Amino acid sequence: MLRRLKFRFILLAMISMTATLIIAFTAVSITLRAQMSKNTDSIIETLYENGGQFSLFRHADEDSGYKPFMHSETPFRTRYYVAYLDSAGDLYKADFAHIAMTNIDLIKEQTASIYSAKKTRGYIGNYRYGVYSLEDGIMIIGIDCTEDLQTINMLNMITLITIAFCIVIVLILLLAFSNRVLRPFEENREKQRQFITDAGHELKTPIAIIRSNTEVLEMTEGESKWLTNIKQQTERMSRLVKGLVELSKMDEQTLSEKEKQRIVFSEIVSNSAESFRVPAESKGIELNVGIAPDVFISGDLEDIVRLTGILIDNAVKYTDSRKQINISLSSKAKKAVLKVSNTCAGIDRSSVPKFFDRFYRSDESRSSETGGYGIGLSMAQTIVRNHKGKISVSYSEDEIITFTVELPSA
Asked: What residues have CB less than 8 Å from 130, skipping those under 6 apart?
């Protein structure tokens, strides 16, 4: 139990931290690129307003339109071109003085692509471009953003490496200190388990005394409904105490590979179904069984027998007036799949996920009159978990409840 809790604690902590870091990284990366694009668009706009050339920059206190990222060095560090295309999209004039001559053929291809794209802003390769309409065509201004894009990519790479490093460090710290964090919880669970075990042993003695005294009274005074009721409730309490102690032990049980044995699951389910056939038929219940042969699993034989007994007994107890139970066992994708379903009208759908909670019984169909205590399904869930399997419950539109168990095949 503690191992599962520790794993979940570390998993949730790592998922939360990783998600937070990734969201922060994404937000910063998008913001940086957006700001770069905004600054570049401002430079493109300035070039357009000055006919494709840089004008002298004013100081901030001389013009409210001053852009702090643009300064006297901006014209010398900005690599850009200006191209003029006619209405047919043919290049008839260009200023390629501010880019390397080896890029001119590439720029001509870019301008043709930009013209076809019909966009006023965007990226093509490492160039950010702006398109402006003229009387006789269009004006395209493109700025080489290679250096800025490389800087952003480098920052992204460094950030990702830092995130990965932080994740590893946090994982190591969680592994190192998780036991200390969970120690109070484990101590409380141990005290609870010990209390249930001790209380179970302490209750056995008075229960045995009540039972024996009741039997003596029956022999001396004769049978009566009062003594019969005492005997029934004593037996009920005895079974409840036994179930609590067994469930407490199961919570702490872990099966090692040496303790497991290869089990013919088909035979266990078949035998369990047959053992409940007589009590089912005595209630007029139709028991339909479909079991695939040679379905094997690995586990504890006693626990698996208890598991099948709990599910089938639960179905017999809570079948409604339609009186139908279906039991099936199949092998699928290296898993043994056991399904036990029964007709059961009047269940509140919101209560279905609570069926595995200890002592839970819905008012409509799971009353104490059936003899249940609300710990059987919790015990079944514990057995399945100890065998590294999965158990689930579903409630269909035609009011049929189905318990499905998936266990690894052997």
From this structure: 41, 44, 45, 48, 120, 121, 140, 141, 142
List the single range of 103-117, 160-174, 179-193, 346-360 with lowest mean pLDDT. Answer: 179-193
Radius of gyration, CA atoms only, the chain? 38
Strand, coil or helix: 299: strand
Answer for the pair 313, 376: CB distance below 8 angstroms, yes or no.
yes
* Rounded Cα–Cα distance for residues 290 and 340 (Å): 10
Count of all residues that appear for the chain in the document: 410
- CB atoms near residue 156 (< 10 Å): 16
Per the CB < 8 A criterion, the answer to whether 92 and 85 are in contact is yes
Buried b (16+ CB within 10 A) or exposed e, 77-100: ebbbbbbbbeeeeebeebbeebbe
Strand partners, 94: 83
Q: Phi then psi for 364, rounded to 5 degrees?
A: -70, -45
Q: Mind listing the pLDDT tens digit for each residue in 324-357? A: 999 999 998 889 999 999 998 888 888 888 888 7
CA distance 145 to 37: 9
Please work out, in degrees rounded to the nearest 5, the angle formed at the alpha carbon of residue 409 by the alpha carbons of 404 and 410. 150
SS3 readout for 198-264? HHHHHHHHHHHHHHHHHHHHHHHHCCCHHHHHHHHHHHHHHHHHHHHHHHHHHHCCCCCCCCCEEEE
What pTM was computed for the model?
Answer: 0.55
For tokens 């190192």, name the residue. 176
Q: Cα(223)–Cα(236) distance, rounded to whole angstroms?
A: 19
DSSP state, residue 128: E
Residue with the two structure tokens 């209630």: 283
Q: What are phi and psi of 292, to 5 degrees?
A: -75, 140
pLDDT tens figures, 267-295: 999 999 999 998 898 899 999 999 999 99
pLDDT in tens, 200-236: 777 777 888 888 888 888 888 888 888 888 887 888 7
Cα–Cα distance, 64 to 395 (Å, whole number): 69
β-bridge partners, 264: 296
CB 236, CB 216: distance < 8 Å: no
Residue 259 and residue 298 in contact, taking contact as beta carbons nearer than 8 Å: no
For residue 263, with 0-12 CB atoms within 10 Å meaning exposed, 13-18 middle and 19 or more buried, which class applies? buried
Strands (E), 300-345: 324-332, 335-343
- Helix-helix angle 146-221:225-251, to 10 degrees: 150
